[in-house]
């Protein structure tokens, strides 16, 4: 089930029985009670959710603060496996993905997300210090929607995020 389907089912259950508990919803939908609570809390929050995947705090923290100030919900992951877990739990609207991560690299994360029916439509912007043409081509070929080299201009990156989100919503 995708994000919208689960949220729609929660809404239907609440419309049918306004006194239904989070526990009852979790049992009926097969998701955790904590996930139900989070989803109900997020139903009224329409800000785009960005997952930043980067192990470099010098990149992650300023970018997170800037995006939050720009009215985005920001979730972070420090490695590839954590990113895959966060995608399942948080269901971001877009992912900013570094290539050079400990353990599983960004190419592998991107490939796994794009090969999964539940996550293939989440846009990914590769954000990395690797700026060779072959690296950019590889990232785009495995499914990245855009590729931005570090160091990046923050205004340009925000414009690219808006552009990719706009395109993904029109699909």
Q: What's the SSE blueprint?
A:
Elements: H1 3-16, H2 22-29, H3 33-42, E1 49-53, H4 57-69, E2 73-77, H5 80-90, E3 94-97, H6 106-114, E4 124-128, H7 133-141, E5 146-149, H8 154-169
Parallel strand pairs: 1-2, 1-3, 3-4, 4-5
Helix pairs in contact: 2-3, 5-6
The overall average pLDDT, rounded, is 90
Largest sheet: spatial strand order: 2-1-3-4-5
Q: What is the global morphology?
A: elongated
Question: What number of structural domains do the residues give?
Answer: 2
- Give the % helix: 40-55%
Please give the count of helices.
8
Give an overview of the whole structure.
By secondary structure, the protein is of the alpha/beta class. The protein is built from eight helices and five strands; from the N terminus they run H-H-H-E-H-E-H-E-H-E-H-E-H. The chain folds into two domains: 40 residues, Arc Repressor Mutant, subunit A, CATH 1.10.10; 121 residues, Response regulator (Rossmann fold). Strands 2-1-3-4-5 form a five-stranded parallel β-sheet, sandwiched between helices. Helix 4 links the parallel strand 1 and strand 2. The longest helix is centred in the last third of the chain and has 16 residues. The protein is elongated and about 55 Å long. The mean pLDDT is 90.
């Amino acid at each position: 089930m995708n994000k919208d389907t689960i949220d729609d089912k929660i809404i239907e259950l609440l419309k049918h029985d306004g006194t239904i508990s989070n526990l009852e919803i979790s049992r009926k939908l097969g998701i955790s009670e904590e996930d139900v609570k989070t989803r109900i809390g997020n139903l009224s929050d329409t800000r785009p959710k960005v997952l930043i995947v980067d192990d470099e705090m010098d990149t992650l923290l300023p970018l997170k603060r800037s995006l939050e100030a720009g009215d985005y919900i920001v979730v972070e992951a420090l490695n590839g496996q954590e990113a895959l877990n966060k995608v399942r739990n948080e269901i971001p609207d877009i992912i900013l993905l570094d290539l050079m991560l400990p353990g599983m690299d960004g190419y592998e994360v991107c490939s796994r997300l794009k090969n999964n029916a539940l996550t293939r439509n989440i846009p990914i912007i590769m954000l990395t210090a690797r700026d060779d043409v072959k690296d950019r081509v590889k990232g785009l070929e495995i499914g990245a929607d855009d590729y931005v080299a570090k160091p990046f201009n923050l205004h340009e990156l925000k414009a690219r995020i808006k552009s990719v989100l706009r395109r993904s919503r029109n699909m």
